[in-house]
Amino acid sequence: MDIRQLRYFSTIVEEGQITRAAKKLHMAQPPLSHQLKLLEQELGVTLLERNGKQLELTKPGIVLYKNAKKLLRQFEETITEVQETEEGIRGVLALGASKSCFSFFPERIRAFLKKFPLVTLQLREGDSFVIGQQLKNMEIEVGIIRLPMDLTDFSFIRLSKDPYVAVIPEEWGNKSEFSHSKIVMKHLKDIPLLLLHRIQGSGQYELVVDECRRHGFDPKVVCECPDVSMILSLVSTGVGATIIPKYTLFSFQTPNVKILDIEDATIKGESALIWNKDRYLSKSAKNFIEMFE
């Protein structure tokens, strides 16, 4: 069994048919079928079974496919690492960002692409948990997330902290407690709140709830959502108010809202640039990280 056979096998699995796999591999169907048969004979197991026109993995096939993908990725990373010892950077750099802290990216991306014009960026978004999973799965190389988050598996650079602010519907600005540019926490006691809440893990939701309780009340939460753009859209239509880190607003142009500083709030938002610890990092990813140092 060699790398070539593993690549053939993985392509057959992903295409579901030997005909389609042969076309993708730019080879004839009979030699590809022969290679699959040789691989099964060498291992002494059946890897794929026919179900109608489709091929399905057997249990041994599932084990081989899972490990073949890891081996192929490691092989490709080795080739890439060797090639990148040469001068010049080109290729694709995959980045991920939570919407609530994307504002740290644009200027640095502009500077990076100006310096490395042959690099193409792929951007993915998700909450902090999703970005962490994308890094672990090697779908992206560098991510920017909103803390708190367990950073045990990552190398990271902490970014600047920003205070939490209240964002209310513009129409509420006529009320006396919201008529100025600042408020105190008690003014948020009885109003409907829409709070950011991750799909998994702790985060901003718990920080805000704990801050409210520190001021002697339980917040009236009418909506929890992991997407800050959806929350701001609801605020702009008068559904309720939200409490979010100030820098979050730099990524959005939201009409019909009013932003109020909270004078007595103690919580601050903090973001971090993260990447996998003790794993290969491409030269382009290292250069991008340097934009934050």
How would you sum up this structure, described in words?
The chain is an alpha/beta fold and 293 residues long. The chain has three domains: 81 residues, Winged helix-like DNA-binding domain superfamily/Winged helix DNA-binding domain (Arc Repressor Mutant, subunit A, Orthogonal Bundle); 86 residues, Periplasmic binding protein-like II (D-Maltodextrin-Binding Protein, domain 2), CATH 3.40.190.10; 111 residues, D-Maltodextrin-Binding Protein, domain 2, CATH 3.40.190. Helices cover 37% and strands 26% of the residues. The chain contains nine helices and twelve strands. Helix 1 crosses helix 2. The longest helix has 25 residues. The two termini are 45 Å apart. 30% of the residues are buried. The mean pLDDT is 89.
Task: Name its key features.
two-stranded antiparallel ribbon; Arc Repressor Mutant, subunit A; 9 helices; about 290 residues; alpha/beta; D-Maltodextrin-Binding Protein, domain 2; 8-stranded mixed sheet; 3 domains
What topology does this entry show?
Elements lengths: L2 H13 L2 H8 L3 H15 L4 E4 L2 E4 L1 H25 L7 E7 L8 H10 L3 E7 L2 H9 L5 E6 L6 E16 L12 E2 L8 E5 L7 H11 L5 E6 L2 H9 L5 E4 L11 E6 L5 E9 L6 H8 L3
Parallel strand pairs: 3-4, 3-5, 7-11, 8-9
Antiparallel strand pairs: 1-2, 5-12, 6-10, 6-11, 6-12
What is the CATH topology descriptor of the largest domain? Answer: D-Maltodextrin-Binding Protein, domain 2
What low-confidence regions span 5 or more consecutive residues with pLDDT below 50?
Answer: none
* First-to-last CA distance: 45 Å
Mean pLDDT: 89
Please give the CATH architecture of the largest domain. 3-Layer(aba) Sandwich
- The class by helix and strand makeup works out as alpha/beta
What's the main sheet like? 8 strands, mixed
How many helices in DSSP terms?
9
Radius of gyration: 25 Å
- What is the CATH class of the largest domain? Alpha Beta
Extended strand count: 12
Q: Write the element-wise H/E pattern from the N-terminal end onward.
A: HHHEEHEHEHEEEEHEHEEEH
Helical percentage: 25-40%
Overall tally of domains: 3
* Proportion of residues in extended strands: 25-35%
User: Given the C-alpha coordinates, what overall shape results?
Assistant: elongated
